[in-house]
Specification:
heterodimer; A: 314 residues; alpha/beta; Rossmann fold; 2 domains; four-stranded parallel beta sheet; 9 strands; globular; B: 178 residues; five-stranded parallel beta sheet; 28% strand
Chain lengths: 314, 178
């Protein structure tokens, strides 16, 4: 299989083979992070701009380190200290960055479709680091990578995504990736945050958490995103904890080999109990490590030019 | 249409590997200092086979690793991204004689990338190069230390090294466009 995409904008448009290619490539990049010298020259001489119009810490740091470990030159551009405050449009900002000969633009934006827009108006490769409530493709790829590492496969697994689905780009990207690779996806949370319309994406929707986790191989918890909710979607945090928080008693009813994931930052005592977050069943810190490998793999793949991938020697 | 000629059959490939192993043993008196690293896809299996023959010759285990060179290639933005294989070098290369093993030596660019990639794992005392086929057309000042067979080729021709591990058969064929 040959990777032909110049951008990574979403999971929806990827084929299952393309997703698997990212995962296989990431396996090799994960090994790079375990060496004494954690840097390879693959993107030497290339310039990457991290255009984070919406605040982010962990995704930006992960991308930044991935870029540095590929030997790229890195520019960080954040909303707080930038021309957006002075009224410049996204298009003008991006064109200015391209005038500096940026080869890659990694964009995080509160508007869905912002990366797709940039991909149309720029020559640089565009990577979506999260656009509104639409998609967060590298998060889904690292989640799937982590699941595959532990379970050896994706097809046939039962994956439960629990929490704020409606406002979650992580959930949308995960649903696309998991469905394409043949997993059964169950969504659970308050009815206001997990509407039945998600059944159209091929998921099972339930509002009963015990039922949702009973047969799950993986329970992926999502944070309640106060910043994205225009009005309160459930009566109180305490009620959410009572009905949907993952605690020891609840997890005891799940399969004994069910593992727990969370894209972070976690709210201890809200969506996840502290002792579960710190237990051997939590993959939360592995997700962080794998995120770096997956982002290196994505940058490596979209950097490729045209033509066959076959090595000339053979 | 392509015209194919078998250059090495299974028996000839086995003889070539045995001869290369003996040459490696002859060149390196102290077997304890020698480690092998094969370049995927092909060289990794060949390195394993050479390691087996050498460990019988030296009566001691010979460490064998896998060295992927994709991240160190110099043509990454000129072609679609190559398939990356995990590098596995479960030993220290510092102070060792590392024999790089590849199936075909052509432009020499893979070998250059391999030497760079190896640098990230330590500082070998020596690096030597073993290949099954040297087909000429070097673009860099690189020469193999151990060669199974020299095969003069034209640019448009292709050499295919098929191995039991990957393709179910051991043979080397030359494909010539007609």
């Amino acid at each position: 299989m040959t990777w032909t995409r110049k951008h990574l904008l979403d999971i929806e448009s990827l084929t299952p083979d393309e997703i698997v290619m990212v995962l296989d490539t990431a396996r090799a990049f994960k090994a790079v992070g375990e060496r004494a010298i954690k840097k390879v020259p693959a993107l030497r001489g290339k310039t990457v701009v991290n255009l984070f119009v919406e605040p982010s810490t962990r995704t930006r740091i992960s991308f930044e380190l991935a870029e540095q470990r590929l030997s790229a030159d890195v520019i960080n551009f954040s909303a707080e200290a930038s021309s957006f405050k002075k009224g410049e449009t996204l298009k003008d900002t991006a064109r200015n960055l391209e005038a500096l000969n940026a080869d890659f633009i990694v964009i995080r934006h509160s508007a869905s479709g912002a990366p797709h827009f940039l991909a149309r108006v720029l020559n640089a490769s565009v990577i979506n680091a999260g656009d509104g409530a639409h998609e967060h493709p590298t998060q889904a790829l690292l989640d799937v990578f982590t699941i595959r590492e532990h379970k050896g496969k994706i097809a046939g697994l039962n994956i439960t995504i629990l929490g704020d689905i409606l406002y979650s780009r992580v959930a949308r990207s995960n649903i696309w990736a998991l469905r394409k690779l043949g997993a059964t996806v169950t969504l659970c949370g308050p009815a206001t945050l997990v509407p039945k319309t998600f059944e159209q994406m091929g998921c099972r929707v339930t509002h009963d958490v015990d039922e949702a986790i009973r047969d799950a191989d993986i329970i992926n918890l999502l944070r309640i995103q106060h910043e994205r909710q225009r009005k309160t979607m459930f009566p109180s945090i305490n009620e959410y904890i009572q009905l949907f928080g993952l605690n020891k008693a609840r997890l005891a009813k799940a399969k004994s080999d069910a593992l727990v994931m969370h894209p972070g930052p976690i709210n201890r005592g809200v969506e996840i109990d502290s002792d579960i977050a710190d237990s051997g069943r939590s993959l939360i810190l592995e997700q962080v490590t794998n995120g770096l490998a997956v982002r290196m793999a994505v940058l490596f793949l979209v950097n490729g030019g045209k033509g066959p991938s076959e090595v000339a020697g053979n | 249409m392509t015209e194919t000629t078998v250059i090495l059959d299974a028996a000839a490939m086995q003889r070539a590997l045995t001869r290369i192993a003996h040459e490696i043993a002859e060149r390196n008196e102290n077997g304890a200092e020698v480690v092998l690293t094969g370049i995927p896809v092909g060289g990794d299996h060949l390195a394993k086979r050479l390691g087996k023959i050498l460990s019988e010759l030296w009566r001691q285990p010979v460490p064998v690793g896998i060295l992927d060179v994709s991240m160190h290639r110099d043509d990454l933005d000129q072609r679609a991204a190559p398939t990356v294989h995990p590098t596995v070098i479960p030993f220290d290369v510092t102070g060792k004689t590392v024999v790089l093993v590849d199936d075909v030596l052509f432009s020499g660019r893979t070998t250059r990338a391999a030497m760079d990639a190896l640098n990230d794992f330590g500082r070998p005392k020596k690096i030597q190069l073993a290949v099954v086929i040297d087909r000429g057309h070097r673009e860099l000042p690189i020469k193999a230390d151990f060669v199974g067979k020299n095969v003069p080729t034209a640019e448009g021709e292709k050499i295919r090294v098929r191995l039991v591990e990957n393709d179910g058969v051991d043979e080397v064929v030359l494909e010539r466009p007609r």
